[in-house]
Amino acid sequence: MKIQKQDIIFVVGVSLVYCSLSAGFSLVSTILPDKMVLLNPIENGSLSVKEIVGHFIWGAVAGVVTLKLRYILLGGLLAVIIDSDHLVGLLHVEGIPRMSHSITFAILSTIVLLLIFSRKDYRLAAIVATSVLTHISYDMFAGGFGFPVFTPFVNKIIDLPRTDWLVFEISAICIVGIVIFIVTRKESEKIIKNDSGR
């Protein structure tokens, strides 16, 4: 597995857009009901090395299933970058904490990134969609287990059993695995069809 210049450009581009989406999505929380004072992520310690490394490893594990370095790196980076939703706390405003830790954000970010980078990059879609699962998995493993999973439709923090971290991680790995199986199969069929047409 080698990384090339185009892979680096792709990973950086996707990461920057994803970071912007996460922070922007969290700004919406300032106009929603059920707000609370958001904590400053620097004072709160949510930007620790342990958090960053843990999230990266959890995301990269799901990305390994792709067998492509660009998606392994993206899996790790997106699982970290999703926490840019904490940056809204620097504004000392009221809002819904962890807005990007939701199903809505997973769907929205997947659609936006596919539209920007490639409508048919299903590997990217799988990594983006499951980055919320891998991120929540590590948060649960590390001790945090309340998330606004259904925001902005239900703006309540849903408490999840801490022991379910493994279910979230395995779900992410399975989703990526299923997508990779389907994509690889279609690519193989296309190659066989092209070879037989000669």
Short description:
The protein has 198 residues and is mainly α. The chain has 7 helices and 4 strands.
Structural summary, described in words:
α3 runs parallel beside α7 and α5 packs antiparallel against α6 (122-142). This protein has 7 helices and 4 strands. The mean pLDDT is 89. The chain has helices spanning 5-27, 41-44, 49-64, 69-81, 103-117, 122-142, 165-196; strands at 36-37, 94-95, 146-147, 158-159.
Can you tag this structure with a few keywords?
4% strand; mainly alpha; two-stranded antiparallel sheet; single chain; elongated; 4 strands; 198 residues
Set out the fold topology.
Elements: H1 5-27, E1 36-37, H2 41-44, H3 49-64, H4 69-81, E2 94-95, H5 103-117, H6 122-142, E3 146-147, E4 158-159, H7 165-196
Antiparallel strand pairs: 1-2, 3-4
